[in-house]
TrEMBL record:
PROSITE patterns: HTH_TETR_1, HTH_TETR_2
Protein name: TetR/AcrR family transcriptional regulator
Organism expressing this protein natively: Bosea rubneri
InterPro entries xrefs: DNA-bd_HTH_TetR-type_CS, Homeodomain-like_sf, HTH-type_TetR-like_transc_reg, HTH_TetR, Rv0078-like_C
Record field: transmembrane: none
DNA-binding region ranges: 34-53
Keywords: DNA-binding
Domain (HTH tetR-type): residue spans on this chain: 11-71
Keyword Protein biosynthesis in annotation: no
Length: 197
């Protein structure tokens, strides 16, 4: 019987722990998740969790990174379907706001994430988002679609608006209404960036 390569075994162990944590964090939340139950569900030990992620908080960060990567793929697909770059940018931002209605994203990314990991602006994924948004806005500015403004400043303002809207939706008594109102207001804000003929 052949042995699996070490890197494959490490990847499989990490994937099992992330999958079990994602299921637990998404259903009962971070605080109520028992490390013993989580590792048992993954068929592993607490030692494996500590070895790969340091602690429960490190595991949460890994789960959020996985969810964020999936969200990014979905947002890129939304943007790619658009008829033009401006519409793609707008649709991508609106889709992010709408994702705040999804229970797993609400609980793990928008509620437990900030409560446990602190301000989302300090998360590595946020830096990547700002970089990508700055690039998109720079191209739109250079093409004469939006006003001649600093793209990073605009990216930070837009990212802040979408993140706060998403957190509002995640905590609102009526998330659907908050989402609809957020998108309507956001469209009005974005329209102010456009160069008028």
């Amino acid at each position: 019987m052949s042995r699996r390569p070490r890197q494959q075994m490490i990847a499989e162990t990490r994937a099992k722990l992330i999958e079990a944590a994602r299921a637990a964090f998404g259903t009962v939340g971070y605080a109520a998740t028992s490390m013993d139950e989580l590792t048992a569900a993954a068929g592993l030990t607490r030692g494996a969790l500590y070895h790969h992620f340091g602690d429960k908080k490190g595991l949460l960060a890994a789960v959020i990174a996985e969810i964020d990567a999936e969200m990014n793929e979905r947002l890129n697909a939304v943007s790619a379907r658009a008829a033009d770059p401006w519409t793609g940018f707008r649709d991508e931002c609106a889709a992010y706001i709408e994702m705040a209605l999804e229970p797993e994203i609400q609980r793990i990314v928008l509620r437990d994430g900030p409560a446990v990991l602190g301000d989302p602006w300090t998360w590595p994924t946020q830096s990547a988002c700002i970089t990508s948004m700055t690039d998109s806005l720079g191209k739109l500015r250079d093409a004469g679609v939006i006003l001649a403004i600093d793209p990073e400043a605009a990216a930070r303002l837009i990212a802040g608006a979408t993140l706060h809207a998403a957190q509002w939706i995640a905590h609102a008594p009526d998330g659907r209404a908050a989402s609809q109102n957020s998108i309507a207001a956001f469209d009005a804000l974005l329209a102010g960036l456009l160069v008028r003929p």
